[in-house]
């Protein structure tokens, strides 16, 4: 056997060596990933700070994130455009968890207008002096939905770009100085699989493009701020159950679920049907 192995050509041995190295590296990465999944959740309050800022916390993913952070003992600054919805989520959070909340009414689609500047000033005031450790840039819009670019409503497009990328940038810039000062913090940006996991997302071109910005913004920001103790993460979900108050799924006690159930939202389903129809019957 030994003499046979010694007779193996050098190219074969080199390839076998490289293969073994690759398999070992892959196994190590896989085990490290498993260990990451199985470890105990971080104490966010101790690691990052006592407060979290969440944009778009009144429905969908943002609502779940806000409730989850509150369940981990973080006080919340809730940012949304609708005062009544903000009051409702703020009350819900405080009735379930022993945390404090602050609300900031901010229509993110008005960023960089006089009204937007005023709202941003209120946000800066709200976070001033607070130990804000976590920022979740969740608010995002997909309207105008599935349309050809030349047919899209211009105002809806402008709103989409303002909310999905401009406001996200401004809000991050408003919260970061405190984190830098304290030398710790985490920024979680809500991207989308539409820009990360699939090569293109026709008819949602602008939406996917704004989410690509979010991903690249997060990557670069991570490198920029990691030496200052700030973690930056971009979440890229596929389709998720979003409006948790949709009557069709109201019977499912979803709000307390830690894992959002993968499903199609009726609005997305409707948009997808339009998209398919328009591709085949232009
Ligand atoms: N659901 C999905 O399938 C999916 C997939 C990939 C990525 N995402 C991303 O995940 C994030 C959350 O999505 P979602 O599905 O949970 O959305 P959603 O249910 O529509 O909730 C969006 C939240 O953002 C708020 N918001 C919308 N426009 C705003 C504005 N101009 N100013 C301030 N707040 C505003 C909404 O407030 P009101 O309720 O008061 O209007 C709501 O609280 C978004 O960034 C989205 O792009 C979602």
Order of helices and strands: HHHEHEHEHEHEHHEH
Residue ranges: pLDDT <50 for 5 or more in a row? 244-267
CATH architecture assignment name of the largest domain:
3-Layer(aba) Sandwich
Order of strands, main sheet, comes to 3-2-1-4-5-6
Structural class: alpha/beta
List the helices and strands and how they pair.
Blueprint: H1 2-6, H2 10-38, H3 44-47, E1 51-55, H4 60-71, E2 75-80, H5 83-96, E3 101-105, H6 114-127, E4 132-137, H7 154-182, E5 185-190, H8 193-196, H9 205-225, E6 230-235, H10 266-280
Bound molecules: NADP nicotinamide-adenine-dinucleotide phosphate (NAP).
Question: What does the model show?
Answer:
InterPro entries: NAD(P)-bd_dom_sf, SDR_fam, VLCFA-Steroid_DH. Pfam families: adh_short. Helices cover 52% and strands 12% of the residues. The protein is built from ten helices and six strands, in the order αααβαβαβαβαβααβα. α4 links the parallel β1 and β2. It folds into two domains: 35 residues; 237 residues, Rossmann fold (3-Layer(aba) Sandwich). The chain has a six-stranded parallel β-sheet with strand order 3-2-1-4-5-6, sandwiched between helices. NADP nicotinamide-adenine-dinucleotide phosphate binds next to α4.
